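Appendix B: complex inputs.
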Amino acid sequence: GAVVSQHPSRVICKSGTSVKIECRSLDFQATTMFWYRQFPKQSLMLMATSNEGSKATYEQGVEKDKFLINHASLTLSTLTVTSAHPEDSSFYICSAPTGDHRYSPLHFGNGTRLTVT
Amino acid sequence: GQQLNQSPQSMFIQEGEDVSMNCTSSSIFNTWLWYKQDPGEGPVLLIALYKAGELTSNGRLTAQFGITRKDSFLNISASIPSDVGIYFCAGSERGGSQGNLIFGKGTKLSVKP
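Resulting structure:
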């Protein structure tokens, strides 16, 4: 079945540094990918929609200059957390639909646990 | 922003028991989805519902899209230990199963062998 691969699964970084998270669709192409954030024992909150070949669309309250998104190919989207701070520590999850139709199922990666010290 | 009310927040049941959880919304949703998330992993889609009144099964799981379009439930029959995890409902006001999803806060299921 459709697989979304996310890397790294865990990362610890120092405050002020930047971290890049990759999201790949392994056996299908995705013109759109979605980035979510999940705090402990909380629900998933959509951060942004990544669009292949064009700018990402950010949800209200999400700083686009802090969370840089690049969707350079049909199988790869990256999220870079710039100048990370402890409050950015969270579980980041990407997802991709298996087709272009809006009813195409949304498959999630296994997430990246970011800890900023 | 828009939120889904998911209940119960947690359940601790005996193996073999049936499980029921539900989500409600104050506004009409045109799509309801149910996901399961294991610790440290991403959610896995269990069932997708696109029509009011729709009742869909996936093995021991059954979910329904409420007639009012403001609620959905998920039932698990004859629970087994591997059913342990957090179950999330997700809805879309605009329809479709993609990025414009709103997630419930989850139901944590624990199963005692």
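Chain B touches chain A through 25 residues (CB under 8 Å).
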